[in-house]
Amino acid sequence: MYLPSATESAVEKENTTNKEVHRKNREKQKRDNCMATVDQKVTIDCPWSIYSTIIALTFCIPFNAKHSLLSAGKRKYVQVCVQNLSELCFQLSDNSLKNSADCTDLQLVPLNPASQQVIYSKQSIFFVWELKWTKELPLSLQCLFSVSFCPATSEEQSLTLKPFTYEFQVENFFTLYHVKTEIFPPLGAEYCKTGSLCSLEVSITRLVDLSEVDRDEALTESD
C-alpha cells in the first residue's frame, strides 16, 4: 500500500516553517499508519527541462508470508503462514491456494475455516491445504496464495483493498525417508522418570531412490 508524499523539489522551495510542518505531517502519517514501510525514490527526467524531479514514495507492508511442506506418512500438506507486521488489526476472508499449472490429477483440499478471521498486531495465522493426487505427483508445484483483508475497525471496513497475494514454487517434494523415534525406560523400569537415563531409538527408512541432484548433496556412507 502506498502513502503519498511531497516531491523533494517542492520541499526544497518551502521556507523553514513549512519544512517543519511537512516533517511533522510525514511523521504523523507514518505513526497513524503503524505499518512496516519501505521508502523508495523515483527520478523523472523531462526532455524540455534540464532539472530532474525526485519523487519520494513510501510503501506500507501489512503482511509477510512464508510457506512450508508438511508430511505425515503418505499424506502431504502445504502450509502458508501470514504474519501481521502492523500495529493494526485486519479481518481476513476468502483465502485460496491455486495451482497455476492446472494439473487435473492434483487437488488442493482446504482445511481452513470458511468464516472470517481476525489477525491481530504481530500475530501469525496459518492456512493448510492437503495434497491429493490420483496418478503421480508432478515434479514441481507452482502455487498462488490469495486472501482478502480489510481493517477490523467498523469505521474503516468500507475501504476497498486488493487481496494480498503470495506466489511460491515447491519442487522435489517426494518423501525420501520415513523417520520414527521412540524413547525406552531404563532396563527393568516400567516408565521413564526425571533424572533416569533413558534410551532414544531413531529409525530412518528410505522410501524411494535419491535423484541425481540429491545424490550429489547427500552424505557419503562413511559420513
Features:
single chain, 223 residues, mainly beta, Immunoglobulin-like, 4-stranded antiparallel beta sheet, 3 helices, 13% helix, Trafficking protein particle complex subunit 10, TRAPPC10/Trs130
Please provide a written account of the structure.
By secondary structure, the chain is mainly β. The strands form four sheets. It has a four-stranded antiparallel β-sheet with strand order 4-5-9-7, with no helix packed on it. 9% of the residues are buried. Among the domains are: 62-171, Immunoglobulin-like, CATH 2.60.40.10; 177-214, no CATH class. The protein has helices at residues 8-12, 16-33, 212-217; strands spanning 2-3, 36-45, 52-61, 63-72, 75-84, 90-99, 106-110, 117-119, 124-133, 140-151, 164-171, 177-184, 199-206. The radius of gyration is 26 Å and the shape is elongated.
Summarize the helices and strands and which ones pair or pack.
Layout: E1 2-3, H1 8-12, H2 16-33, E2 36-45, E3 52-61, E4 63-72, E5 75-84, E6 90-99, E7 106-110, E8 117-119, E9 124-133, E10 140-151, E11 164-171, E12 177-184, E13 199-206, H3 212-217
Protein name: Trafficking protein particle complex subunit 10
InterPro entries: TRAPPC10/Trs130
GO biological process, one term: intra-Golgi vesicle-mediated transport
> Which secondary-structure class do the elements indicate?
mainly beta
- What's the arrangement of strands in the largest beta sheet? 4-5-9-7
Largest sheet: 4 strands, antiparallel
| CATH topology assignment of the domain at 62-171 | Immunoglobulin-like
- Looking at this structure, what is the CATH superfamily of the domain at 62-171? Immunoglobulins
CATH architecture of the domain at 62-171: Sandwich
* Text of the CATH class of the domain at 62-171: Mainly Beta
> Into which percent range does the helicity of residues fall?
10-25%
What is the mean predicted local confidence, pLDDT?
79
The counted number of beta strands is: 13
Order of helices and strands: EHHEEEEEEEEEEEEH
Shape: elongated
Q: DSSP helix count?
A: 3
- Gyration radius (Cα, Å) is 26 Å
End-to-end separation = 50 Å
Q: Uncertain spans, ≥5 residues at pLDDT below 50?
A: 5-17
What is the percentage of strand-forming residues? over 45%
GO biological process, one term: early endosome to Golgi transport
Region (Disordered): 1-30
InterPro entries: TRAPPC10/Trs130
GO cellular component, one term: TRAPPII protein complex
